Amino acid sequence: MPMILRKLRTTVPVSGVQATGIDSVTDPAMLAHRLLNLEGRQERRFFDHRLRMSTMHAVCVRSQLLGLRNNVSSMENLPVSLRVTFDIGNAIHLFLQNGGGYLGKNRLGWWQCLACGHKLFGRQPAAKCSRCGALEGAFQYAEHALHMPEGVPVSGHIDGFLEVSPGDIRVIDFKTINGDDFQAMTAPKPEHCLQVNGYMHYVQMDDTLPVRINANRGLLLYISKKHTGRFLPFKMFHVRRERMYLDVIEGKVAEFRHGLDDPTYLPQPLQACEASTFKSAACRSCSTYAYCLAALRQ
Description:
Blueprint: H1 3-11, H2 28-35, E1 41-46, E2 51-52, H3 61-69, E3 73-78, H4 80-98, H5 100-103, E4 107-113, E5 119-122, E6 139-142, E7 144-145, E8 154-155, E9 157-158, E10 160-165, E11 168-177, H6 179-184, H7 190-202, E12 217-224, E13 234-240, H8 243-261, H9 271-275, H10 281-284, H11 289-297
Parallel strand pairs: 2-8, 11-12
Antiparallel strand pairs: 1-3, 4-5, 4-6, 4-10, 7-9, 10-11, 12-13
Helix pairs in contact: 3-8, 7-8
């Protein structure tokens, strides 16, 4: 018998294994808790000097300015349930962006060579990297980050672009959604339409893109988290450029820019905060709550 097999038989017996503490755990949830990393996570949040397009619908410009001026940061708790929700959403995004099985040849965007970092815009490269010679599989999709001119305090990462007909390139945004909400959905959510409107509007000011993007029409793709095989897990909606969304965005951006330029300027508090006389849970949990009340007393 070869020596390697004789050694394996003496060190890894196939019978007579002693039961360990973990073998007595029969509850499936408890077993997962024992063997998986189910710790919550804390993340420190800082206030940015730009407004993020993904949270534009809900951002409080007053809080954003107060946070910047007072160098405020806060710890945000991320329990494991929320971690899993975010991780599933991120995984689906990566799968759609990097796998051609669904978006196919219509998919456009930036592709980065993992070997040398070289980036190029277009369809997924079918050849090796022209700079370092790495093979096709070395390329990974890289979301486009908005690059704004001086004085436009906006940031955002666009999920992707689709060329729906020759020369007609549109922004597409992916949203994973609860299965029950997905089945009932007959129209896109307003906050998501606002986000895509913002991308369509501000990408026109971005001179780092080598192609022209449709400024009037975009797309929203919803993916169900509860796919059983009975229904198609995708729903796609047109998003048209609408003045009511752009008015909200441009109003917030103008207020924020005013506050950046003038350190004495603060927008009025949110109506919901005033209606609760600043006693609601949302108010009290705001990391700039004390600064907001102090500014009102001045």
